[in-house]
Design brief:
The complex is a heterodimer of chains A (116) and B (154).
Chain A (H helix, E strand, L loop, with lengths): L1 H21 L5 H17 L2 H9 L1 H4 L3 H18 L1 H7 L5 H17 L5
Helix pairs in contact in A: 2-5, 5-6
Chain B lengths: L3 H18 L3 H29 L8 H18 L1 H9 L1 H4 L2 H14 L5 H8 L4 H26 L1
Helix pairs in contact in B: 2-3, 3-6, 6-7
Classes of the chains: A mainly alpha (116), B mainly alpha (154).
């Protein structure tokens, strides 16, 4: 059952992205930026949490979860430190994802030669 | 009375219009749906496995799963496979975190010829920078408004 909801929601995100690409003529960079902003906005109203409760990885795997995690980290620190906490905690949860992307991206671009 | 050639030309024009205006966006979107859904199912399966294998809680298991996807996306981009797949499957690979990892790796690889300092490290976030900057700016604004409202209420 959780696999079904993950499939439906995860697919839906990509479906919307593809529509923006084909009909709106957005570039991949625009799509990723738009999804991140959308995730951050949805999390501002606690809507993204419900989506994650419902679909698990279906909502966590799309890049919009990056925006959601940024807001989440900022809000957890803000509970203790108020406005200062926003800057302190904004990368708290996403740190693993960003640092893995930097590490493996760097290693791959040093090791591999581009083709074509 | 139209000549034979004229009729052929008209027919050709008609067909050309049909082929160019009727873009295959429905098919592309369905393919993206299937691929994205399949990736999410794979992620969900990994998530459940990781919780058992490494004895993690639900919150702790999210980051290792994302890291696994990022690792394989970087590896496949390095082998040149990812670009072929993303041409076919479109947003199905770009919207998940794999798209983020691919943009970091491919811009780094493209600039490899310019050296490591100004080439790779300087250019790695040429596209992924969009995600980081927009993400941080929008998340900052959203959190700021929320903290403001919460302090005003209390």
């Amino acid at each position: 059952m959780e696999y079904l909801s993950a499939f439906l929601v995860g697919g839906l995100f990509c479906f919307i992205g593809q529509l923006f690409m084909d009909i709106g003529k957005w570039s991949p960079a625009h799509i990723m930026g738009g999804f991140v902003i959308g995730g951050a906005l949805l999390d501002g109203f606690h809507l993204y949490d419900r989506l994650i409760d419902f679909s698990g990885m279906g909502a966590l795997l799309p890049i919009s979860s990056f925006g959601h995690f940024l807001v989440h980290g900022a809000m957890t620190e803000a509970e203790h430190y108020g406005f200062l906490g926003i800057g302190m905690g904004i990368f708290e949860v996403t740190s693993a994802g960003v640092s893995t992307a930097i590490l493996f991206g760097f290693l791959a671009s040093v090791i591999f030669k581009p083709k074509g | 009375m139209k000549t034979n050639e004229q009729i052929m030309k008209d027919r050709f024009e008609e067909r050309r219009k049909k082929m160019t205006s009727d873009r295959p966006w429905v098919k592309n979107a369905l393919i993206a749906y299937l691929v994205g859904g399949a990736l999410a199912v794979l992620g969900q399966w990994l998530f459940n496995r990781y919780m058992i294998w490494f004895d993690l809680t639900e919150k702790e298991a999210v980051n290792p799963v994302l890291a696994t996807f990022i690792f394989f996306a970087c590896l496949l981009t390095g082998f040149g496979v990812f670009d072929k797949w993303s041409e076919k499957w479109g947003a199905g690979l770009i919207v998940p975190v794999t798209g983020f990892a691919n943009s970091v790796t491919s811009s780094g690889m493209e600039a490899r010829a310019e050296g490591i300092v100004f080439g790779v490290t300087g250019n790695m976030f040429r596209i992924a920078g969009v995600v980081l900057v927009f993400g941080v700016v929008s998340a900052y604004l959203v959190s700021f408004i929320r903290v403001l409202i919460e302090t005003l209420i209390n």
